[in-house]
Design a protein that fits this description.
By secondary structure, the protein is α+β, with helices and mostly antiparallel strands. The chain folds into three domains: 69 residues, Phenylalanyl-tRNA Synthetase, Chain B, domain 1, CATH 3.30.56.10; 97 residues, OB fold (Dihydrolipoamide Acetyltransferase, E2P) (Beta Barrel), CATH 2.40.50; 79 residues, 3-Layer(bba) Sandwich (Phenylalanyl-tRNA Synthetase, Chain B, domain 3), CATH 3.50.40.10. 19% of the residues lie in helices and 26% in strands. It is built from six helices and 14 strands. A five-stranded antiparallel beta sheet has the order 5-4-3-6-11. A three-stranded antiparallel beta sheet has the order 1-12-2. The longest helix is centred in the last third of the chain and has 13 residues.
Length: 295
Amino acid sequence: MDISFRWLNQYVEQDWAPDDLAERLTMAGLEVETVEPVGQSLDGVVVGEVKTVREHPNADRLVLCDVDLGDGAPSQIACGAPNVAEGQKVPVATVGTTLSLPDPDNPEERQELTVEARTLRGEASEGMICAEDELGLSGDHSGIMVLDDEATVGTPFPNYLNERDLPATDAVLNIELTPNRPDAASHIGVARDVSALADSELQRPEAETPSPGGEVAEEITVNIEDEVGCPRYVALLVRDVDVTESPLWLRRRLTAIGLQPRNHVVDVTNFVLHECGQPLHAFDLDTIADDTIIV
């Protein structure tokens, strides 16, 4: 079971480094097999603002952007992303920055690239406007990462992330759970042990119970065929859901422990499972045969 160190720290205050915490958890009965670093430092990446976008005279798939990096005259950067536009705040890897990028031949592996001043089809390019996957923040390579309007030009990008509780680096503790410890099969479950070891209060997340509507049984039937394996099944019907991408903080939580974000409905179910150990599944009501869930 993979536990994100930074996610874990949302539920308990403790001062140990990941390796120290792993040793204490192992001595307490939760065997940590490995501690793996996640992410990269992103030193040399800064917040920039795209001032102008114009066609590249010699390349149909590239545009030339004048990007303000907060250090004087704008830098010209060639970009092939379909979503780049004037006025955007974006993360820019400056010349000399080394990034760990996805290997195009093997997405599970990464390879290092040092950003250089280059000439692309006869035009200078001094830097790289980055997508989320190039920064190690998610697997999204659909376009460049667009930051919020409050981002300050010239700010080191790691500072931007830290200010929004989205640090660039993390560590993942791989715990070998024994059958007698199903209570520790989640971040809150492990945090409970940490709170005892650190003599620190467990900080449970607050949850609001929605106001009940009509009876779900009027819309959907739950048929439990194996009452021994599943003595109780709870169904909740939510209407008028617009399926969209999850916010970055949620995608960061999931990618840190090796899960691929899909959309905010699927991602929330996975988040709850790994937060508190409660399995969830979301169905599309329109696709359930005979309006019946069979367990």
